[in-house]
User: Fold these one by one.
Assistant:
Number 1:
Amino acid sequence: MGRLRTKSEYEDLRKARISGNNVPLETLGLQKSIAELGSLAAKPKLERRKWRKIDCSSTPVRQSNRLKGKPCDYAPSVTVENGGFCPGKDSDSVLDPPVNVEMEEVKANSAYEDLRAARILENKARLESLGLQKAISELRSIISSKPKSQKRKLIKIEYSSSPLRRSSRLEGKSCDYRPSVEVEDELMKKAKNGFTYQPSPDALSRRCSSKARGSVYDPVYGICCHFCRQKKLCGEEDCKHCGELDMDQLCIGKTDCSICHSSNGVLCRACLKVRYGEEMEEVRANKEWICPHCTEEKGINPYWICNSSLCLKKRKMVPTGIAIYRAREMGFKSVAHLIMDELQRRGAAHR
């Protein structure tokens, strides 16, 4: 089909298509049905409200005495007589008579309201014939008679009678960290009754089965690793702290920083090997071993940082997870060497 050049060609083509569509409709007898449907679908037009024009020419024009420079009397100029309005003697103007508005048109109900009221009456009659009107009223009375759930009263606790706790350390006073008399009495009672914590023999026999991180969890004698945070007894055979449960002896299966001696420098054998590439025997032989925290603080190697999840989050870095396989594939000894290389590259790129 070519492009239509003029508007008349388009109109001719449109009329030809309409006539072509009407022929099959007439043969099927649908033309009359379409006309009936169109008449049913046509909505009735709403009657417009007539505009009533008020003729104000019979009343004189009101003029302002104030604009003319005359003294104004602000007293009311009309009096009410026999329920109607009439002009007063001293008034210079006449009020317009009230306009009577046909209230019947405003108050007239629409067809929808009439239909709704008729349906309500029909439904009520049907309920009364079935005897359900009384049942509905009884159900409403039962629902209304249910007691409301009482709100729980708020009990306010008075703390004004008890003295406030103050920190002696913040005030610069010497602090006494000894336990109170009640705690000492409780400990003495437990000691007299023979209360001592002792792991089971089965647990102690399994202690050396795992030399890397230890296989026995102990909340009292176990020392928590800074990286894996496992509070276990070490798997070293010669450790008196974990083997003989002697609190006065040092655990030889966990590292100890020579500078800070804090929990940041406590690492188990497996974390020390995987995360930092060091052996426990070398660290134990070196009495001046320094943890990664102190190494960074002393400025010995600023890129040798602690790669635990806690410390990396403090630096706003994403924890590495199990990164030892990626580090070894890339030729690094441990995860710490991989992170040190990445930090050195970032520092060189920002220069």
Note: The radius of gyration is 50 Å.
Number 2:
Amino acid sequence: MLKAKAIAQVLAQAATDDVRAALLLQQDGSLISFAGAPEKEAKVIAAVASNVWFAYERNGKPASGGARVGGDNAHAQPPQRQGEGMRSLVLECEHGKLALSKISRMLLCLVAEENVEWGLLNAKTKALQDHLEGPLELVA
């Protein structure tokens, strides 16, 4: 059984000054847990993030040697194994940056300010993914 409060505490560690929100959501966009944003805003972010993820997963095709998808402002990591699907997606939006990563059958989402470095956002996303992946695999 998932303990939303414990997950929220882990997500809160990533929601610092420049990272406005950290969310864990189901594939359909429903929230499991979140930190750093009001609930209403978190629900909207989760719905949009889920739609963006699956639009890229269905329609985005990584270039043959690189990891770019959808233009200059979107970066996706290609699958490691055939049939695995997309692993992560980082987008530059009008008012900030959005990092998405797949954990088991769930999505991890970080919403950051415009001035956050890409490397820092990727590192926070990867650290959270690594920390949550084991426990979430057990309940998925």
Note: Strands lie at 19-26, 31-35, 74-77, 88-93, 96-103, 106-112.
